[in-house]
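wait is this the right file?? whatever heres the structure
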């Protein structure tokens, strides 16, 4: 039996107590999942909302953009999560916003009325958040794990629907505990798996594709360009982030492929979904190099994304070359020649 790790427990702060200290109870609170939210963002936002209402706060739950994932929409229905587009929440200047799984310095957050008073996230922030409360735990596989710790540290019981929502977020972001898993994610999984409904979670997560998505896969297989272990896929047309991520994961399943870029878009911008299973090529670092001067992006070691405005898009082959260079493959080629 491994011994408990008191060192970590001692240094851990009780997140919810600290957060509540920064909230004015007389003003409305909105917990906001990032734009075009995923399971982790909604699970985290839901769990936080259920915890905040116990502190007699007036809390609403919102998201920017639209929910593009059918699987997530089904989960919201099954768990009866009362989450709405932020434009329906009638935010005022008085509103206190708590942003989860992303933050307002990030391009995927809708500009809204109200003040961002807190950020809870597991992504490396592009710059330090300036709001009064920021809890960024970069090594965590999912934001859901942070909320799991909020409940643990506060000794608060967890409703089954909350446990299920967090379990779903954790399983989604870690690809069923196979990607970017920290020790604390395992602790969370151990508890959430037993308290939440893992069968419902697995069924919803494993049925995220529709027959209508097959065309995108067909196109991806035809369009994919392989250079050593790097697979580049430019899709013609607009696809949801979810389908792009699933295509990227599909290519990562190929034993020869360790780094994948899927790009799609045509109107305002081109969007990217990026995956890596080689620690020598972290997604966030490679994306940063490849999009330098033409777009923005970020993520973690194993997964990331980005966007490029249409007028700056260097073309499919131009973008592929930028990634080849960011991966350092072009230098290797020169060395070989000499
Ligand atoms: Mn996340």
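ok assuming it is, sequence goes like this
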């Amino acid at each position: 039996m491994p011994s408990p790790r008191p060192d970590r427990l001692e240094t851990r702060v009780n997140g919810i107590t600290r957060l509540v200290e920064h909230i004015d109870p007389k003003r409305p609170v909105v917990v906001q999942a990032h734009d075009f939210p995923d399971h982790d963002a909604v699970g985290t936002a839901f769990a936080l909302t259920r915890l905040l209402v116990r502190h007699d706060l007036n809390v609403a739950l919102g998201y920017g953009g639209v929910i593009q994932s059918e699987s997530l929409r089904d989960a919201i229905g099954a768990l009866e999560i009362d989450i709405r587009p932020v434009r329906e929440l009638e935010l005022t200047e008085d509103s206190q916003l708590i942003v989860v799984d992303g933050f307002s310095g990030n391009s995927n957050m809708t500009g809204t009325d109200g003040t961002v008073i807190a950020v809870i996230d597991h992504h490396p922030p592009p710059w330090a958040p300036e709001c009064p409360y920021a809890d960024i735990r970069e090594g965590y596989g999912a934001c859901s794990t942070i909320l799991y710790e909020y409940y643990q540290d506060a000794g608060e019981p967890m409703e089954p629907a909350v446990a299920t929502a967090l379990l779903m977020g954790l399983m989604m972001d870690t690809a069923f505990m196979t990607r970017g898993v920290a020790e604390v994610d395992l602790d969370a999984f151990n508890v959430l798996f037993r308290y939440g409904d893992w069968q419902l979670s697995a069924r919803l997560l494993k049925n995220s594709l529709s027959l209508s998505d097959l065309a995108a896969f067909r196109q991806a297989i035809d369009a994919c360009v392989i250079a050593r272990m790097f697979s580049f896929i430019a899709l013609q047309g607009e696809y949801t982030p979810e389908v792009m991520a699933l295509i990227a994961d599909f290519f990562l399943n190929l034993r020869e492929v360790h780094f994948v870029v899927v790009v799609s878009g045509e109107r305002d911008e081109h969007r990217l979904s990026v995956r890596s299973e080689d620690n020598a090529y972290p997604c966030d670092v490679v994306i940063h190099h490849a999009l330098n001067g033409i777009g923005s992006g970020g993520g973690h070691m194993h997964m990331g994304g980005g966007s490029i405005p249409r007028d700056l898009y260097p073309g499919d082959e131009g973008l592929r070359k930028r990634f080849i260079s960011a991966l350092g493959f072009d230098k290797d080629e020169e060395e070989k020649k000499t």
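The pocket of manganese (II) ion is lined by residues 40, 101, 122, 142-143, 173 (CB under 6 Å). so i think its the right one actually
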